[in-house]
Queue: 3 jobs
Job 1
Amino acid sequence: MTDDDEQQLAALLNGLPGHDDARFWRGLKEAAGIYRIRSTMSSAVQEAQDGDYEPLAEFVLDVFNRDARLKDITAALATHLGSTLRARAWITDAIAAADRINRAHVEDPLDELAAKW
């Protein structure tokens, strides 16, 4: 993980409506099938402000990395981003940045691999 990954994830999420746009978040919550999406996002943002981006990365993966609900999630994002194509690109970029942040929190990948074998 680099500061660039953290900044990219923050910039992507900053492109979404804020906490006060209940209609957007309600639509995204229904599309993703996630309970308490705004409060979870709020907590993750606060932790990121304290330097821990892992909860924010987990939030993105939990909400947007859902193949079974991808069509609905894309449609919910498209209402804000302006098109399905932009929504798909946003989801791809957000998942990639979140995944890089999560992988960076692995202590030593070789030790984990050795533990598996």
Job 2
Amino acid sequence: MPGSTVPTLAEADEAAAGEGEPTRVEFAEYGGREADCPARLAVDLFGNSWLTVIVYTLRDGPMRPVDLRREIGTISQKMLTQTLRRMETMGLVERRRYAEAPPRVEYGLTRAGIDLLVPIFALGEWVDEHGELVRNSLYGDETD
């Protein structure tokens, strides 16, 4: 991401190697309260469980809604439509209509949607490393 102050995963790994602490990123002043932190927007995005699943599913290119739903599996048509419309409004996906009979629609990631894959992959790495601990703490060790 050219011009961005957020390090790539590789840069963060290099910076944190041997330090034992996460990389800190400095942002411009955003207000006097922690509640004003712009990172809350990202937390809100990740609070919608289907949004990240759809972004991840579109990672390899545009898809028709029927194919998206088939690939995702458990999402209802209504929820898929609502989430795609919300994502289009947010600038994360682009809806492309083709003048064909029958009509065809595809959704693909915008630049902002593609860039959202970076934290999605980072969270995946975190879950790979710490997910079992959290799962066992919440639900108990299922191997008993």
Job 3
Amino acid sequence: METNNMRSIGERVRMLRVQKGMSQEELARKLRFGSRSMVSEFESGKRALSSANVIDYASFFDVSSDWILFGSGDKEKKEYATEVDAMLQAFYSIRNPRARKVAIEQVRVLSLI
């Protein structure tokens, strides 16, 4: 289901691709998405980006994940954004549901400090 946020995420990733002068097919090859239609679906908001896709886009275009997801903050990647990307990647690599739940709780506690 398409949401307004998915559409605006799609608009931002399309803008990045166009600014770099790439076709959807070229980007699909570079990011190993498999097909041009996958890029098209991301850009149109018909398909949501996974966390791994967001990290791939952010890394490839050298922008922050926050900017791709929320359109807020600076477009250019900052040091903290790189740290956030690394933390997100680490979080999503946790396979054990109990360990992931513990990680979420620890982040909640830290956010209160």
